[in-house]
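### Sample
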Amino acid sequence: MNESPKEPGSTGPLTAEANSVVRVEKGRANAEELAAVTALLLARAASTRAGEPQPAARRGRPSKAGWRRLERQHGFRAPHSWQG
């Protein structure tokens, strides 16, 4: 029983192309496009060094903007209004 290895989640055999690090799921990428994506991924990996703790996300500050969009407000608010 000598079966060829299968790609995880696939019914087809594992090919030399599927054994690469980057795989194009849809469309056809040329060598220049693959080089650009690879350079981007390597730069991203180099910027986040393994072993160093990542800074915690800011959770104390709300994500809501401190200003209001004037086009969504009524033209005038009376000074004695409850919305004031």
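The chain has a mean pLDDT of 70. This sample (Acyl-CoA carboxylase epsilon subunit) is used throughout the tutorial notebook.
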